[in-house]
Amino acid sequence: MAGDLDRETMERAYARWAPIYDAVCGPVFEKGRRAAAQAARQVGGRILEVGVGTGLSFSDYDATTEITGIDLSEPMIARARERMASGSYPFVRDVRVMDAHDLEFSDATFDCVVAQFVITLVERPERVLDECARVLRPGGEIILVNHLYSERGVAAAIERWFSKHAHTFGLRPEFPFARLEAWSRDHGGIQVIERRRVAPLGVYTLVRFRKEAAAEISSARAAG
Ligand SMILES: C[S@@+](CC[C@H](N)C(=O)[O-])C[C@H]1O[C@@H](n2cnc3c(N)ncnc32)[C@H](O)[C@@H]1O
């Protein structure tokens, strides 16, 4: 799968999306974005938004949180900075251009890492998930929301056809939940704690992972 959505393709695609993103994609992703931010607020504290885009999610947070956003696309981050400069989101601490494959943060910096409509787009999703897990404190959560690939039936056939044409738009629809589950199994110390469909019509899936605390890992090792 690596190489089908490389950095250059992604930067080109989102330079085109940036001026129209809020109007075109904002409403389409709104319910999924809200559900993820709501789950992140339950964790609270220092929240990293990976692929923050234009910062549409800022209005879904409040002063009980401290938001840091990163995105590969300079034009998308420029929009997020404009939003930040409005003064309406004092809890947004920083937004920066950064590649999610190489997060420039120390281990265990954040209480929660959120990626809304991002993980299916990146070149190496497992590498990005490794990075999210690394910068997360023990006991913290990774929260993803995305359209995940239907593994059976008519929807799967349509998505397979669409995927052949989608990459030039910076999209990768052929991404099953099983891939996320396999990552958490292989990673160790990360568990899927929730998987649920969200509106509209259940087309998006919200997935929550929890990073076990050190004590939980050592007692699991002792038991196993
Ligand atoms: C569909 S948009 C979602 C934006 C935002 N999360 C939202 O829900 O409105 C995907 C975002 O992921 C960003 N992105 C793609 N690959 C990335 C990477 N490797 N590192 C950081 N951001 C990336 C894109 O630039 C784009 O802003």
From TrEMBL:
Membrane spanning residue stretches: none
Keywords: Methyltransferase, Transferase
Pfam families to which the protein is assigned, alphabetical: Methyltransf_11 (PF08241)
A biological process from GO: methylation
Top-level taxonomic group: Bacteria
Domain Methyltransferase type: from-to ranges: 48-144
Annotated GO MF terms: S-adenosylmethionine-dependent methyltransferase activity
CDD domains, A to Z: AdoMet_MTases
InterPro entries referenced in this protein's UniProt entry, alphabetically: Methyltransf_11, Methyltransf_Superfamily, SAM-dependent_MTases_sf
UniProt-listed PANTHER family: METHYLTRANSFERASE, METHYLTRANSFERASE DOMAIN-CONTAINING PROTEIN
Protein name: Class I SAM-dependent methyltransferase
The organism of origin for this protein: Phreatobacter aquaticus
